[in-house]
Give the backbone structure.
Amino acid sequence: MLVLGIECTAHTFGIGIVDCKNKKVLFNEKNQYKDDTGGGMELRKLSEFHTSNFTTILLKAKQFLKTLNKDFSDLDLISFSQGPGIGNSLKIGSLVAKTLSTQYNIPLVGVNHIKAHLEIGKMLTGFKDPMFLYVSGVNTQIIAKDDFGKYKIYGETEDIGLGNLFDSFARLAGLGFPGGPVVEQLAADSKQNYIELPYSLKGMNITLAGMYTNLKQKLESGKYELGDLCYSLQETCFAVSMEVCERAMAYTNKKEMLIVGGVAASKRLTFMAKEMCKLRGAKYDSFPMQYAMDNGAMIAWQGFVDKKKATTDITKFPIAQYINIESEI
Ligand code: ATP
Ligand code: FE2
């Protein structure tokens, strides 16, 4: 079954083509909007970027299909990110998917972007029922299926996401964007003197904004080495995240763990996760970063998972900006 997936929830416009029966990603290309102001994304520029650039990826997909002696009309299903995300982006992904579906009379399905992040991890690792740590710029959530087979959030950040914490601190320290990789490098090169930072757990939830404020004060005091601050930032925010993961695994009795989202690139975080799983007799696995970040292949695969909902009635699947992992979609 040949499924084409379109991702456009925020900065990335991606198309993936997956041979779902054989669980093989055949094509996965994307364009990413980069804001050079260092602030958030300017919505008008974001829409302009996607509307002017999606054709490049679409034509690459067409050329790829040609190498298989196929065309869009040979697809079995078209899938797109229905939400959550930024309205301006979601509308463009939806428009492209609905146009393709109508033009070639291919069934369409709208999918939940977060479920797609999780399901591609299961597909690539062969894990059946893992505890997920979903850590991107905006999101920090600990998710797994409950006894009824529905995804449930077991713990999350009550304010900023892990990635944003790294990015905000890096911006403050003049380290540029994205912050995660450069903070990781400075921490690895430092003397690794641990400086105590707020370790904020509220039941199964965490808060990270206080850690940012504390780091800001310490940085501005000029009393600490930048490398040591980077090291302490990593140690503290990853430890607090691991503590919630471990508690959730103990509570649910899950025996597998995966990390999805851009922060999965952190070697220190994955090391801690591996150690924690080893101590619990659980399995930890990872998969290539191109599938842990926003991409079209994960949307194609999720379309396959949700194929029962597919229809050629394109009035279905309105964009859904504010859904979460526990939503029906
Ligand atoms: P969202 O998907 O929630 O809208 P996003 O698209 O910004 O957020 P991703 O693209 O999944 O998130 O991940 C980017 C984030 O990952 C950035 O905040 C970046 O700093 C962080 N990151 C990347 N590498 C590392 C690392 N080695 N250590 C920590 N954080 C990292
Ligand atoms: Fe995402």
Notes: The mean pLDDT is 96. Residues 10, 136-139, 163, 166-167, 178-181, 184, 261-263, 265-266, 293-294 surround adenosine-5'-triphosphate (ligand 1) (CB under 6 Å). The chain has ten helices and twelve strands. The first helix runs from residue 43 to 67.
